[in-house]
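Exam revision sheet. Question 4 asks you to relate a sequence to its structure. Input first:
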Amino acid sequence: MRTRVLIATAAVILAAGCVSGCSTDDTSEWNRVVCEVEAVNGGAPLVAAYVVDGGDGIIGGAEPDDSYTIDFVTLAFTARPYSSSTMTIPEGGAYSSFIVTGYNLTWVPGPNTPVGLDLTQYNVRNAPFYVQVPINGDAESAVLVGTRDLKESVYDTFGGPWTFERDFDAALQMEFIGHDSGSQHEVIVSTGLMVNFTFALSKD
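Answer key, structure tokens:
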């Protein structure tokens, strides 16, 4: 089986109009602290492979150098005051940060997703998460998006290794739930990622 080099086969998409602290009541831009996602996965695409060749050029089977991976994506958050011209927020004050407390993940299968594969069973709701983003600053964290169960489900749907012609794409919608440090009013910070599923990647 051919190896596959990790290249830009999928693009990061930020959900238009809903990146900056989108609220359940569509009023988040009026919050004292507005949180945004600056980058998902470092701005690079995500290719989710079932197996990674350890470097000998032989993929799959019982080769001890191969690895069966899970996929995390990094997230870069930033926070700012609603209006820097009219608001002065002291460092360490009541509204000096935005606190992310949970997240939702929603899979949206692409048109080439194999029949019989239900990615939506791997949606995540209200998962615990914590990152504190200082106002006029940034913070990073990571979320698991490609579990072994998900990849095994893809593998089983094909009944074994699939070819490059059977690679497929899916959109992953991501919502981060949080509030500013001066209140408990929850808002949602939304973003997204396109994921290309493939059987194998080359480590080299």
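Marking note for examiners. The chain is about 5% helix and 45% strand.
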